[in-house]
Write a structure and sequence with these properties.
binds magnesium ion, 18 strands, binds adenosine-5'-diphosphate, alpha/beta, binds aspartic acid
């Protein structure tokens, strides 16, 4: 039997009624002759609640226990989905990550999937089970402890199963009907894309478009998984939603495919550090050892052998960065006169593979922001994206102005 993977996100399993609706969609695919692997998220809001409980109990928590707690939301929806399918006379069974097993690294709260041996689930399919409902977001470490894959990780569970079972397709059911030119909640004129390339989706996801977890796109690209994003709230045809695919499969595309943003950024500046070989290595290895994910970096002009070093990182890592720098100072590893943290910045990025062959995108982006009176604090570029760090209060304005200027509401 051909295998199909169907993933339902938090809003798609938020109530028993919605689980029933999702189960009906699964039933349609079973009737077509597929063996279906259903990956479920926790009910919407549940994971946030669990994370909140952990933080309240233990601010400097043990990551193994964090995973024990936050993985539990998916166990509930997996069991409920299996029960719902059974009520509809569809032979179904639920699986927690460790039962499959979904083998991961032991990097708790950000584990990577290493292997998914298909044998257990395959033997159940051979016995007549039609649907394996698997709890997303979780796995088991080599030490035998429960791990989680980072926020949004059920997308990655889904793609990893599609690769391991050589599924015909991996359908990601969510609360929007596909991938848009930007988040439709921020720009009402955002346009749904029928297709988007793996490269562009990867950039959009890593720059903040949370419709797919970055790692899921990486895996889909590597294992050539046919990946589709579609709505769980509408009747669906086989062409519905957005197909994430190789760029060769896309005939026409705009120079800029989309605008992404990340709200929770911070800009930190280490004031007056010695401008000498090795100083950047010291600073950024201290930050990395402290688990700070540094994104943009700027070294300012040096005066009298001293310079300022600026970087951006997620706002919830500012405390860790401050601690790491304070430790490095008291250990006399890095000498500096001050550390500034601006916690009110956001990152806005334009992404498109057309930038490889078109010049002028950066100039246009900067002009648009200038016309709106928005000051650019830091810039980074790659072959197919340009990102700027700006004052957070202008984030929506910037997204909308860029979406307009690059005419993303119109197809190529
Ligand atoms: P799920 O719970 O189903 O995993 P998420 O909330 O993780 O859903 O992802 C879907 C959300 O992603 C949408 O509701 C939308 O607000 C947001 N989003 C951000 N950027 C985009 C984009 N470019 N296209 C579509 N949705 C986007
Ligand atoms: N429930 C997890 C989260 O909220 C995983 C997921 O939904 O993808 O991050
Ligand atoms: Mg998600």
């Amino acid at each position: 039997m051909p295998v199909l993977v169907m993933k339902f996100g938090g809003t798609s399993v938020a109530t028993l009624d919605r689980i029933r609706r999702a189960a009906k969609r699964v039933g349609v695919e079973v009737a077509k002759g597929y063996d279906v692997i259903v990956i479920v998220s926790a009910m919407s809001g549940k994971t946030n609640e669990l994370v909140g409980w952990v933080n309240e109990t233990s601010p400097m928590y043990d990551a193994r226990e964090y995973d024990a707690v936050v993985s539990s939301g998916e166990n509930v929806t997996a069991g409920l989905m299996a029960l719902t399918l059974q009520e509809m006379d569809v032979p179904a069974r639920s699986w927690q990550g460790w039962q499959v097993p979904v083998q991961t690294t032991s990097a708790h709260s950000a584990a990577r999937i290493e292997d998914i041996p298909p044998a257990n689930i395959m033997s159940k399919f051979a016995e007549g089970m039609k649907v394996a409902v698997v709890a997303g977001f979780q796995g088991v470490s080599p030490e035998g402890r429960i791990t989680t894959l980072g926020r949004g990780g059920s997308d990655t569970t889904a793609v990893a199963f599609a690769a391991a079972f050589e599924a015909e397709r991996c359908d990601i059911y969510t609360d929007v009907d596909g991938v848009y030119t930007t988040d439709p909640r921020v720009e009402a004129k955002a346009r749904k894309l029928d297709k988007i390339s793996f490269e562009e989706m990867l950039e959009l996801a890593s720059l903040g478009a949370k419709v797919l977890q970055t790692r899921s796109v990486e895996l889909a690209m590597r294992y050539k998984v046919k990946l589709r994003v579609l709505s769980s709230f509408e009747e669906q045809s086989d062409e519905a939603g957005t197909l994430v695919c190789d760029e060769e499969e896309i005939m026409e595309s705009n120079v800029v495919a989309g605008v992404a943003f990340s709200r929770e950024e911070a800009k930190m500046t280490l004031v007056s550090v010695a401008d000498r070989p090795g100083i950047a290595a010291l600073i950024f290895s201290a930050l990395s050892d402290a688990g700070v994910n540094v994104d943009m970096i700027v070294q300012n002009i040096s005066e009298d052998g001293r310079t300022d070093m600026t970087w951006s990182c997620p706002v919830d890592q500012v405390k860790r960065a401050e601690q790491a720098m304070a430790d490095a100072k008291s250990a006399e590893i890095i000498n500096y006169s001050g550390l500034l943290a601006d916690q009110d910045v956001a990152k806005v990025s334009v992404v498109g593979i057309g930038m490889r062959s078109h010049t002028g995108v950066a100039a246009k982006m900067f002009q648009v922001l200038s016309d709106e009176g928005i000051n650019i604090q830091v810039i980074t570029t790659s072959e197919i994206k340009i990102s700027v760090l700006i004052d957070r209060k202008y984030m929506e304005l910037a997204v909308q102005a860029l979406h307009d200027a690059f005419e993303l509401d119109k197809a190529a």
